[in-house]
Design goal:
This is Maltase. With 1216 residues, the chain is of the alpha+beta class. Helices cover 15% and strands 31% of the residues. The chain contains 17 helices and 70 strands. A hairpin with a 2-residue loop joins strand 56 and strand 57. The protein starts with 14 loop residues before the first helix and ends in an 8-residue tail after the last strand.
């Protein structure tokens, strides 16, 4: 809640500069030739420049039309500064830029270097002649360097947490520092692999009393952070964008102006390796930061020192860890504060507040916290309440507590100078007595401004006397009204008059020689005069620390006993150690719902994960907008619906108890409350390990460049992907699904998409919610408040990954103080629950009663719990439900379930007779005995096979280069492995495709059978019934039917072998209904998928069970779950075999030539189609091998639920 008053003044350089700019617009075209050697990159008359690396010498924003004119007066100023002048047509590119004659040179060097200013004209006067450069290698990952006046102390941020380490680094440094002598510059390198991260030689160092500038070239355009602003995308636009940084009470309306927080901090993702670094400038003065295409960054600040911290990490998350170690880890919010919250400015009366509370209780919406804004106060005076409209406020707090809910009040810093209605204003009087106010320059007279209550004074939270007074006043007020936390506002600090009621003196603090591009271009606009006095110094230096110092004072009261919460609008790095933040006074529009996501992601980078607001502050919130905002807001770390004075109510019940908004809000808030144990654990991990809570996709999937710019989706931790609808009238959303196994969270179904954009159908009551394979999420049955939820039984939600494994953690305490910590691990159907710390006994005797496991392959044969208890097991589709468990919270357990085919993704590595552990491990495979008949005891590791090295996609197909994974030995020493292969996939028609795997270096035998194939491939993607995905490690091809999303061919499994005389490929099958393969005798038409083997090689012998006979037909038809069908033909004439389970393995001796897959309709129609169009509706997968087949009479093949393999005839497997 705030009021924003806008004042417009010209550039604050001087009136003369402003007039000069205006006059410039009318100067006739004039080109100036560059003749000085200092601009040696250009010939005398040339204007060709490497503009992306030029640093502006005149950093003012010029009028838009200036790009088409040549301004003689600014040109003259440029030359007077000994800079280079070169007009260009490109927008935002500086015409006046620094030469190499600017800056400082090194005259002595060690851990310290003395710098002397080189002879060059001054930009803004008062240049400092001698500087000290000081560098500290603080940790293995953190470098600090500081540049300051060598002879006189300057203001430095007195940060509460940041300090030098007590001991030097113990391990090798991940960085090295290089100093350049003349002009002075520095380079920060990553040591392994060597990479230049931060290079200041791109531009000169400028260090004057009120103008400090430093530029640095960066290694990539993947720049995130800097704030606080509205960034419409998470990744920065590096095309000459300038962002002012100086705390300001203003609307976040999408412009580039400064907002409530001060964050000169960014992270940079270097490349697909995930290696990243962060840069933090510890400086609280007004500044601006320019990002340009080099890519490079320029800092321009008007005071303090240049105090930089470079944080080097192996991943983006590691950089956040380093930054929060430096500034302070985020606090763990009380459990109740993760519940849904309601607020608005100006309910009008306590009776109206109660109506809102009651109507939202009646609709049964989960709802934990109610706020009141400044309207609860008497005449908006802090530490009071309205004795008429809110006379029963103390009882209201009890009324909320009696229903398991909480109550929060707002406090502003400004204190009215007036008396109360019926007596003295005692808080003011006590403040006067203790001399706690910000003063005029004389250091004694309180500065007078104006805020909500009218004329006000402002507490100086940097003064210990003020802190003591503030803590005492909060304590006194809490004794009257038992509020549960504090919401602090207007602490940028906001002032409704310019500077003070007297105005501001004309001096260099109020009118500095350079003003960054802050809102209004007036440094004291809507705040205090810059020469006002605080204990820490002039307001000029500490303005952006006002909210930070207020948080430090406030936390001393609210954190005295149980964990509570401070919620602040203004912030500075380190505030997240004690407080959360909301994104300010946004509006009810579709832009602001979009921009909230980059804002939340940035504050997680800044170490403030408890963030955001719902449905918009200003304007009436239409039902569709608020409905979509309530859906996504159910997954904001801070989930509060808040709106402003004079607008329609927007609490959920206001839209009608039977409205779609209420229905979908309840649904997703119930999911939120179900997952609060997981969310609470994420905050614990942020507090302990510095992890983000709300996480950008690129933090988890940095090797995929398509994630680097995603800003309309986000993750809870590493595992829960949220895809909201952010536009009106939309029910289909383009979303990116990163490279992992994902499950539809609500349907509990595995989806086939990965590493691609998809269209999600999200009707009016839905948003996208997907769970990543490998996750174990602790959960709890929800209720209408967290107080009641915490009494209910707990459960585990498990999503299996490619290895049938998962892991997770639970942090649990009373929600306010003590701790218990559980670690969950699941591997191959064994769930381990291990307590890592137990200092808490839950009064509700909580137990885990249910476990849901997504991605299982079949019903369990048995379920064993380590304490001897039994459970009910139910399997639906690929989901296992374990019910009626009694696993007590805080105790260790194992839960083991035996799936009849639990190892159906194990592919036989030693199908020959005589397999044993030694032979198995000699092949680099895994030995694991099994009591399931025919199940392989020796199986391939997950990454065995080939690895994708290059993929080229065209309209007609895909070409893939492969390299053998040499981490594993050869499977057959007598048959030479081919290390490099090529795959060619051709989209033959809308219903068929062909793929061929071959040795690109040597021609190999191919079956000379003519095929009636389409003359031209199908290049129109919309005409194809299928799509193709490539898996990287191990290499595999997935063919997916579009309309059902079923994977009908999936060779993304281990075991691909390609040698001179043995080729092996496996694929998972979409269902148990497989028909074909011949000529062999089958007892039934449909194949039994229980590890049966079939040889395929023509032979004159009578038909017999599983014996190869007169013909070879390596073709099968598979029915899908949808009852569609497809056909697959391996076009190969060599001896081969198949094994069936829920997968299919095909082995070929010598030559594996081709596979044809036909996408048909329903079963019988498919067969008819296949009979007349076998080679017209095909996916052809060609395998080219080498010489002619030697004298092996036949081969065996075996099928199981998903794969096939081949061995020579005459060699029996261990089981048959």
């Amino acid at each position: 809640m705030s009021m924003s008053l806008s004042f417009s003044l010209p550039l604050s350089l001087s009136l003369l500069n402003y007039i000069t700019v205006v006059i410039c617009l009318f100067v006739p075209n004039f080109r100036f030739s560059i003749s000085s050697k200092r601009c040696s990159r250009m010939s005398q008359h040339s204007i060709r420049r490497e503009t992306a690396v030029d640093m502006a010498c005149i950093p003012y924003k010029l009028p838009t039309c200036f790009a088409k004119l040549y301004c003689a007066s600014l040109q003259q100023k440029c030359l007077e500064r000994a800079c280079c002048w070169s007009p260009v047509d490109e927008a935002n590119v500086p015409w006046c830029f620094f030469s190499k004659n600017h800056g400082y040179s090194v005259v002595s060097e060690n851990i310290e270097a003395r710098l002397t200013r080189m002879d060059a004209p001054s930009l803004f006067g008062a240049d400092i002649k001698e500087l000290i450069f000081y560098a500290e290698m603080q940790t293995e990952n953190r470098l600090r360097f500081k540049i300051t006046d060598a002879n006189q102390a300057r203001f430095e941020v007195p940060h509460e947490h940041v300090q030098a380490p007590s001991s030097p680094p113990t391990g090798p440094l991940k960085y090295r520092l290089e100093l350049i002598q003349k002009p002075f510059g520095l380079k920060v390198w990553r040591t392994s692999p060597e990479k230049l991260l931060f290079d200041t030689t791109i531009g000169p160092l400028v260090f004057a009393d009120q103008y400090l500038q430093l530029s640095a070239k960066l290694p990539s355009h993947n720049i995130y952070g800097l704030g606080e602003h509205v960034h419409q995308t998470f990744r920065h636009d590096t095309n000459w964008r300038t962002w002012p940084i100086f705390t300001r009470d203003s609307f976040p309306n999408g412009g580039t102006h400064n907002l409530y927080g001060h964050y000169p901090y960014f992270t940079c993702l270097e490349n697909e390796s995930g290696q990243s670094f962060g840069v933090f400038l510890m400086n609280s003065n007004a500044m601006e930061v320019t990002i340009q295409p080099a890519p490079a960054i320029t800092y321009r600040t008007i005071g303090g020192v240049l105090d930089f911290y470079i944080l080097v990490g192996d991943t983006p998350e590691a950089v956040v860890d380093e930054f929060t170690q430096l500034i302070g880890r985020p606090f763990i919010p009380p459990y109740w504060s993760l519940g849904f919250q309601l607020s608005r400015w100006d309910y009008g009366s306590l009776d109206e507040v109660k109506k809102v509370v009651e109507r939202n209780r009646q609709i049964g919406i989960p709802y934990d916290v109610q706020y009141t804004d400044i309207d609860y106060m008497e005449d908006k005076k802090i530490f009071t309440y309205d004795m008429e409209k809110f006379k029963e406020l103390p009882q209201f707090a009890d009324y909320m507590h009696g229903n398991g809910q909480k109550y929060i009040v707002i406090l502003d810093p400004a204190v009215s100078t007036g008396k109360r209605l019926n007596g003295p204003y005692e808080a003011l009087d006590r403040g006067h007595a203790a001399k706690v106010w910000v003063t005029e320059p004389d250091g004694n007279t309180p500065l007078i401004g104006e805020v909500w209550p009218g004329e006000t004074v402002f507490p100086d939270y940097t003064n210990q006397a003020c802190v003591d007074w503030w803590v005492d006043e909060i304590s006194r007020f809490h004794k009257e009204v038992k509020h549960d936390a504090l919401w602090i506002d207007m602490n940028e600090v906001a002032n409704f008059v310019q500077g003070s009621s007297k105005g501001c003196a004309e001096n260099k603090l109020n009118y500095p020689p350079f003003t960054p591009r802050i809102l209004d271009n007036l440094i004291y606009s809507k705040t205090l005069c810059m020469d006002a006095k605080h204990k820490w110094g002039n307001h000029y230096d500490v303005h952006s620390l006002y909210g930070y110092s207020m948080v430090l004072a406030t936390e001393k009261e609210v954190f005295k006993t149980n964990r509570s919460m401070v919620f602040t609008r203004s912030s500075f790095p380190g505030v997240g150690k004690y407080a959360g933040h909301w994104l300010g006074d946004n509006a009810a529009n579709w832009n602001d719902i979009k921009w909230a996501i980059p804002g939340m992601l940035e504050f997680n980078l800044f170490g403030v994960p408890y963030v955001s607001d719902i449905c918009g502050f200003f304007d009436d919130s239409p039902e569709e907008l608020c409905r979509r905002w309530m859906q996504v807001g159910a997954f904001y770390p801070f989930s509060r619906n808040h709106n402003a004075q004079g607008y329609k109510d927007q609490d959920p019940a206001a839209y009608g108890a039977d409205s779609l908004l209420v229905k979908t809000s309840k649904h997703y808030l119930n999911i939120r409350y179900t997952l609060l144990p997981y969310l609470y654990t994420l905050f614990y991990k942020a507090h302990v390990n510095g992890e983000t809570v709300l996480r950008p996709m690129m933090h988890e999937f940095y090797s995929d460049s398509k994630t680097w710019g995603v800003h309309n989706q986000f993750l809870w931790g590493a595992h829960l992907l949220i895809t909201p609808v952010l536009d009106p009238g939309v029910e289909n959303v383009e979303a990116y699904i990163p490279d992992a196994i994902w499950y539809d969270f609500e349907k509990e179904e595995r989806i086939t998409d990965r590493k691609e954009k998809v269209n999600l159908n999200l009707p009016a009551d839905k948003l996208g919610l997907h769970l990543r394979g490998g996750a174990i999420l602790p959960a709890q049955r929800p209720d209408v408040t967290t107080t009641y939820s915490r009494c209910h039984p707990m459960r585990l939600i498990i999503a299996l990954d490619d290895s049938n494994a998962a892991s997770g953690e639970l942090f649990w305490d009373d929600g306010e103080s003590r701790v218990i910590s559980d670690l969950f691990l699941l591997d191959q159907d064994v769930l381990t629950m291990h307590v890592t710390h137990n200092g808490y006994t839950d009064p509700n005797n909580l137990k885990f009663e249910n476990i849901t496991v997504m991605g299982v392959t079949g019903a369990p044969v048995s379920v064993l719990v380590s304490d001897g208890t039994t459970t009910n097991a139910l399997t639906e589709s690929q989901v296992l439900y374990l019910r009626n468990l009694e696993l007590e919270l805080g105790k260790n357990y194992t839960v083991n379930w035996q799936d009849k085919y639990r190892n159906s993704r194990h592919f036989d590595c030693h199908p020959e007779a005589g397999s044993d552990q030694a032979k198995c491990e000699a092949r680099g495979c895994i030995w694991e005995p099994s009591n399931v008949p025919n199940e392989p005891w020796c199986y391939y590791p997950d990454t065995h096979g080939y690895i994708t090295s290059n993929v080229v996609e065209t309209a007609s197909g895909i070409t893939v280069d492969l390299e053998r994974n040499t981490a594993f030995p050869s499977q057959r020493s007598q048959s030479r492995d081919i290390s490099k292969l090529r795959v060619e996939i051709t989209y033959l028609s809308g219903k068929s495709l062909r793929w061929k795997i071959f040795d690109p270096s040597n021609a190999r035998y191919e079956v000379p059978v003519p095929l009636d194939l389409p003359a031209m491939p199908e290049t129109e993607e919309n005409n194809r019934l299928y799509r193709v995905q490539i898996n990287n490690k191990p290499f595999g091809i997935q063919v997916i039917r579009k309309d059902t999303q079923e994977i009908i061919w999936d060779s993304a499994v281990p075991g691909l072998t390609f040698s001179d005389q043995l080729l092996e490929i496996s694929t998972l099958l979409p269902s148990n209904y497989v028909y074909g393969f011949g000529e062999t005798e089958h007892p039934i038409y449909k194949h039994d998928l229980n590890y049966h083997k079939y040889g395929l090689f023509t032979k004159d012998q009578p038909p017999g069970y599983k014996l190869n006979s007169y013909g070879v037909h390596p073709f099968y038809m598979g029915l899908e779950k949808s009852k569609y069908a497809h056909g697959v033909l391996l076009l190969n004439s060599n001896a081969m075999g198949e094994q069936t389970t829920h997968s299919l393995t095909q082995l070929v001796l010598n030559a594996l030539d081709g596979l044809l897959v036909s996408t048909g309709l329903v079963g019988s129609l498919f067969m008819n189609k296949n009979k007349e169009d076998t080679f017209k509706m095909i996916i052809i997968i060609w395998f080219c091998s080498g010489q002619e087949l030697p004298a092996h009479p036949c081969s065996l093949a075996w099928m199981r639920a998903g794969r096939a393999a081949i061995t020579p005839q005459g060699k029996q497997n261990r089981t048959t």
